[in-house]
Write a structure and sequence with these properties.
Radius of gyration of chain A: 18 Å
Number of helices of chain B: 1
Oligomer: heterodimer
Strand content of chain B: 35-45%
Largest sheet of chain B: 5 strands, antiparallel
Number of strands of chain A: 11
Shape of chain A: globular
CATH class of the largest domain in chain A: Alpha Beta
Structural class of chain A: alpha/beta
Order of helices and strands of chain A: HEEEEEHEEHEHEHEHE
Radius of gyration of chain B: 12 Å
CATH architecture of the largest domain in chain A: 3-Layer(aba) Sandwich
Helix content of chain A: 10-25%
CATH superfamily of the largest domain in chain A: Nucleotide-binding domain of ferredoxin-NADP reductase (FNR) module
Strand order of the largest sheet of chain B: 1-4-5-6-7
Number of strands of chain B: 9
Largest interface: A-B, 30 and 27 residues
Largest sheet of chain A: 6 strands, antiparallel
Distance between the termini of chain B: 30 Å
């Protein structure tokens, strides 16, 4: 085990903040360059550590949003008003700053083209982040795997990656939105929380044995996972990533 | 349902620090009910430490407490932890 332990050792390192992109009013993407980045797989995350002048440290885990690509790394962070870490990341961080992180970590909630399809992705709010890495990875690989994203957002302006998702739609990628709190005029899409009927309509059907990934706040993930089992999906084909009560 | 509940994914970094390998794809077997699950799928609760619970029966599989530079790990709720692709194979606990 000693050799494996050395191979698996995690080290903290610094990434350079290259850019900050506003995704929605509460969500920003941190574009980083991490010189010693070993590469990652879609769905993995990193641990981010902030250290105060008095030595106090706070650590959080953030999903990677970008497809694997050299030393570039993008994290999409939702600002939690009472958060200890996210307000610093979204409001204080500037290009040129350094950010301490370690990773990538995780290997369970991962999709890559070799996993194949069909694939069903179900996201709640910023739960879209690791699912977006999978969608970007699929696009980068030129894969035509049947992949469907059902994304639940509070309103049109709160859809993370809205324009990019629209651009990537087609060639086997289907994106379906449900807007749970407010809908723009003339909205003809879903306007309720994800339920069994919606999952059955979006598909793929359970009999096609899709790989299913669900990510979002814990109550969202619980409700979706139960609804999926209710329409016949096998529990072991449903991979979940719970954010806790309010998210990242 | 507890809104504070997380998955094993959330402690992937901590587990990798403890075990020296990626552990969320390892399969844990509950000593109480015998059910198996990927570590990434077990239920995780954070407090003064981290508690991993069996997603089938809810009993405690493992407890991990970080204390300054020390990490204390109690795996008494796990009958086995089978790693895939990690040298050493199955760890009998």
């Amino acid at each position: 085990m000693e050799g494996a332990a050395l191979l698996g050792r995690l080290t903290w390192q610094f990434g350079d903040v290259v850019d900050l992109v506003e995704e929605t009013a509460h969500v920003k993407t941190l574009v980083l360059d991490v010189p010693a980045w070993p590469g990652h797989r879609a769905g993995q995350h990193v641990d981010v550590r902030l250290t105060a002048e008095d030595g106090y440290q706070a650590e959080r885990s953030y999903s990677i949003a970008s497809a694997p690509s050299g030393t570039g790394l993008e994290l999409t962070v939702e600002r939690l008003d009472d958060g200890e870490v996210s307000p610093y990341l979204t409001d204080e961080l500037r290009p040129g700053d350094k950010l301490e992180l370690r990773g990538p970590v995780g290997g369970y909630f991962v999709w890559e083209p070799s996993v194949g399809g069909p694939v069903l992705l179900v996201g709640g709010g910023s739960g879209a982040v690791p699912l977006m890495a999978m969608i970007r990875e699929r696009a980068a690989a030129g894969s035509d795997v049947d992949m469907r994203l059902l994304l639940s957002s509070r309103g049109w302006e709160e859809i993370v990656y809205r324009d990019e998702l629209a651009r990537l739609t087609g060639d086997g990628l289907v994106v379906v939105h449900t807007l749970t709190r407010s809908q723009p005029d003339g909205w003809s899409g879903y306007a309720r929380r994800v339920d069994s009927e919606m999952l059955a309509q979006v598909g793929p059907a359970a009999k096609d044995q899709p790989h299913v990934y669900v990510c979002g706040p814990t109550p969202f993930v619980e409700a979706v996972a139960n609804a999926l089992v209710g329409v016949g999906h096998e529990p072991h084909e449903i991979k979940t990533e719970r954010f806790g009560p309010t998210g990242g | 349902m507890d809104a504070l509940m997380l998955d094993g994914n959330a402690v992937a970094g901590l587990l990798q620090e403890v075990f020296g390998a990626e552990m969320t794809t390892a399969i844990g077997t509950c000593a109480a009910c015998g059910a198996s699950a990927a570590v990434g799928a077990v239920h995780v609760f954070r407090g003064a430490g981290v508690v991993l619970r069996c997603p089938t029966c809810g009993r405690v599989l493992a407890k991990i407490v970080e204390r300054r530079t020390q990490v204390c790990v109690d795996l008494s709720g796990l009958r086995a932890l089978a790693t895939d692709g990690v040298e050493g194979g199955e760890l009998s606990l």
